[in-house]
Design a protein that fits this description.
The protein is of the alpha/beta class. It has helices at about 10-20, 35-40, 60-70, 85-90, 105-135, 145-160, 175-185, 205-210, 230, 250-260, 285-290, 295-300, 320-330, 340-345, 355-365, 380-385, 385-390, 395-410, 415-425, 425-435; strands spanning about 1-5, 25-30, 45-50, 75-80, 95-100, 165-170, 195, 210-215, 225, 235-240, 260, 270, 275-280, 305-310, 335, 370-375. Bound molecules: adenosine-5'-triphosphate and magnesium ion (MG). Adenosine-5'-triphosphate binds near residues 143, 171, 177, 280 and 355.
């Protein structure tokens, strides 16, 4: 079990860390809140021992941010002796316990051991849940890599909480899929899942789309209309491409989320809405917030919990299973895939991520003639690996020539007369080139 000790006083830090190490725990230390957050982000920490009074970021704030990064962390706050109210507040912020200064080491050990016991039980429960529902996810998807297993496990955990979740990832990585998964795993699964594409709504219709309007509120408002917030009542509201929302519209969204109340355009009355916010972006919202291109307060409001979906090229282990998944979805008859074709599929870089892979397979199953998908059936961009396509021009041209000749031969069942004809070269030249490149059936 990894324990992080955070204290600005070096002596106290050494003492606590030394004691816990001596008891056989893995211990890391941090001397301020910033350093602590970095450690929590980057490494597996189960328990945090946090000094409440530190210069810079206060203990409350550090605790709140730690819980936002990893709600499973057990935090023990170390508070000043006899300080009234702090203990209650830190427990509300998510600490599991607190200790007063000066720290009674035997009491500390006792609390750590209690947490350890509880964690073991939790872990057993978690494993059982994961094994049971691995095949029984409410949404059909494929996730073999460790990284995606982690994403699903996160989705499962955040689904239970009421907090907003920001899902980050490149285009086509499956952000919407994960948003739907969170909704279906949440206590609101019976309620509606309503999507708002922030990039697609015209600016002047934004308020009416989100909050609805009364009859006659503006020219063209012929009838009363409910907005997405109202439609999502009792369920989840998915703010897709939230990074595209124009700055001047952001305060309106922030207010509605913060207050949980909206008013239809043209109406005096506001009403309460009970919704859970899920949002997605392929942009670096944090960076945008730092340069003033996205409101920081809205960013923090949306990003209470965060799930990042890695690009497909960083989890190639997922590719074979995804290929099978999409083949079984799109092929009307059984198709197989040759090892060479699978090899190319696994090696490709997929700038469009899972969506691109899905489109490739859709195309391939409709175009391929035989029951086996071979390299020639794959689109050209998959057949030229980056090494071959980044060399000097002559090399690249030769590579393309080789591919075209091989394709032509494959397509014409290795009948050289027909392949040569298709390529617009003589049979003699074709034979010469086949020998040059070592092309054989
Ligand atoms: N793990 C997966 N298993 C099966 N299908 C997947 C998986 N991930 C993504 N897909 C499929 O890939 C396509 C793209 O996914 P999705 O629309 O969720 O991506 P996105 O991140 O929202 O993309 P964009 O940024 O372009 O909006 C969808 O058809 C989705 O069903
Ligand atoms: Mg999307």
């Amino acid at each position: 079990m990894n324990i992080l000790v955070v204290d600005d006083e070096q002596e106290q830090l050494d003492m606590l860390a030394g004691f816990l190490k001596h008891q056989g725990y893995e211990v890391v230390t941090a001397c301020d809140g910033q350093a602590a957050l970095r450690i929590v982000k980057d490494s597996p920490v189960s328990v945090v021992l946090l000094d409440h009074r530190m210069p810079g970021m206060t203990g409350d704030e550090v605790l709140e941010r730690i819980m936002a990064i990893n709600p499973l962390i057990k935090a023990i706050m170390i508070t000043a002796y006899g300080e009234v109210g702090t203990a209650v507040r830190v427990m509300q912020l998510g600490a599991v316990d607190f200790l007063e200064k000066p720290v009674d080491l035997s009491l500390l050990l006792q609390k750590i051991q209690e947490i350890e016991g509880a964690l073991e039980v939790e872990q057993d429960v978690q494993e059982v849940v994961e094994q049971v529902s691995e095949s029984g996810l409410p949404i059909r998807m494929s996730a073999k890599s460790r990284a995606m297993q982690e994403v699903i496990s996160m989705a499962r955990r955040v689904a239970q909480s009421p907090w907003p979740v920001l899902i980050r990832g490149e285009t086509g990585t499956g952000k919407e899929l994960i948003a739907r998964l969170i909704h279906s795993l949440s206590p609101r699964s019976q309620g509606p899942f309503i999507e708002v594409n922030c990039a697609a709504i015209p600016e002047n219709l934004f308020e009416s789309e989100l909050f609805g309007h009364e009859k006659g509120a503006f020219t063209g408002a012929i009838n009363q209309r409910k907005g997405r917030f109202e439609l999502a009542n009792g369920g989840s509201l998915f703010l897709d491409e939230v990074g595209e929302l124009p700055l001047f519209l952001q305060p309106k969204l922030l207010r509605a989320i913060q207050e949980g109340r909206i008013a239809r355009v043209g109406s005096e009355k506001d009403m309460a809405v009970d919704i859970r916010i899920l949002s997605a972006t392929n942009r670096n919202l944090k960076g945008m917030a730092a340069d003033g291109r996205f409101r920081e307060d809205l960013y923090y409001r949306l990003n209470v919990l965060e799930i990042e979906i890695p690009p497909l090229r960083e989890r190639r282990e997922d590719i074979p299973a995804l290929v099978e998944f999409f083949l079984s979805r799109y092929a009307s008859r059984p198709v197989q895939i040759s090892p060479e074709a699978m090899d190319l599929l696994v090696k490709y870089s997929y700038p469009g991520n899972v969506r691109e892979l899905e489109h490739v397979l859709q195309r391939v199953v409709t175009m391929s003639r035989g029951g086996v998908i071979r390299p020639v059936d794959l689109p050209a961009e998959l057949r030229s690996t980056s090494a071959e396509m980044n060399g000097p021009l002559v090399q690249r041209l030769e590579f393309m020539e080789l591919q075209m000749i091989r394709d032509a031969l494959e397509r014409h069942d290795w009948v050289q007369t027909r392949a040569a004809e298709a390529l617009g070269i003589s049979e003699r030249v074709l034979r010469y080139k086949m020998a040059k490149y070592g092309i054989k059936k």
